[in-house]
Each structure stands twice: as C-alpha cells, then as structure tokens.
Known about the structure:
This protein is α/β, with parallel strands linked by helices. It has a single domain (about 5-215), classed as Ribonuclease Z/Hydroxyacylglutathione hydrolase-like (Metallo-beta-lactamase, Chain A, 4-Layer Sandwich). The chain is about 25% helix and about 30% strand. The protein has 7 helices and 14 strands. A 6-stranded mixed beta sheet has the order 1-2-3-4-5-6. The mean pLDDT is about 95. It binds zinc ion (2 copies). One zinc ion (ZN) binds near residues 19, 195 and 196.
Amino acid sequence: MPEKSEIIIKSLVVGEFMVNTYIVACITSGIGIIIDPAGEVDRIRAEVDNAGLSIKYILNTHGHGDHVIGNHDLKEMFKAEVCIHGIDDDFFQEPQVMAVSQSELGLCGPPPCNIRLNHGDVINAGGLSIQVIHTPGHTPGSVCYKIADNLFTGDTLFVGAAGRTDLIGGSLDILIESIEAQILPLPKETIIWPGHDYGETPTSTLAREMEENVYITDFIL
Ligand SMILES: [Zn+2]
Ligand SMILES: [Zn+2]
C-alpha cells in the first residue's frame, strides 16, 4: 500500500449537479481510477492525460444519474471497467425505479456495470488498494471507497451534512445506521472526500465531522 504522499487525488466539480469527480492514482505506477465521472468527459480525459495516468477502473459511489453520466464514454476511452455495488446495479434497472428516478433527477441511471461490488471487496489498481464499504441509506447500494486514510463518501456523508433520503430507495434510518456502523469506527484522522461540496470546506476529517456534523452529533452521539 503506498504512503499518503504516493497517492495523487485530483478533485473536479463536474456537471450541472456539481458532483465531485475524483481521479485517484498511484504515483509510482501511474495507474489510477475515476470515482463518479459526472460528465464533461473531455475535461476529465485532459486531466488524466496531463498527469500521464492510465485509468483501470471507473467506480460509482451509487447509481444516481448525476454520478454516472461519464461512465459510458470514459469506459470506452480508457478501456476501463465500471464498478458499482450489485444492489444499485439491479435497483436502477428495475423499470419502475428507472422511471421514478428519471423523473426525480431528469437523468437516466447507469447502464449495467462490468463488475458488481460487495461489501468488503478490495479492488487493486497499481499500488492502490481500494476497500468497498456498503453504506446504504441514500440509495440501497451506496458505498464509500477507502484508499489508505482517504474515504470517498459519495452522497452518504457530506462535510456538515448527509445525503438526501427522500429519493426512491432512500431511508434516513438506514443512512444513520450506515454512518454509525461503517464510518464512525474508522480512524479519526480519516479524510472525508464527499460527492458534493456542500460544506464550509471541500474536504474534512472524521474527527471534525464527529464534532460538527448534525447527522452524527444529533442522530448518533
Ligand atoms: Zn445521489
Ligand atoms: Zn449526488
């Protein structure tokens, strides 16, 4: 596993939903991944090419349309494999869910992925070791990805807030349970990289969220 200094993390705010798309790579090998490619694929490609990286996987934190817009084009460009939790892979292909989600977000969900993930899976890319943590609540198959002491939380946990639970498949009780059972036990110095920049700062630490995030301080602690 590379040291912190051997991992590159580039964050781009992408698309009209202003999703944080992350490019994460191992400096030594130049091999990397993209988390939640939210569109603007030429801009993402330019970032990858300028850094001289080769992308092995496209990882979605969940199946909402705004987080998966670039899946198809970037998969073709980079010959990368698209990974999403098996539950969201199934959920967003149910015709009724597809219709409701499209009316909620005005966007189509993801096409079927290449690799269906489960809780506890570890994905290796160059020197990166990416741990899959199932955190349902925002959607049934939402996950966080942990790479060294970085946690990519998608729409499960934001800086100072948490994801919506009023969209199809959402549940506040389940979301709180996920944060309590899967995120709070992680080391306090874990860096939180959220799916949207809704907070006072783009990133945070678990220690700070345990002090300031009402979803943790009011609902759990
Ligand atoms: Zn979402
Ligand atoms: Zn989102």
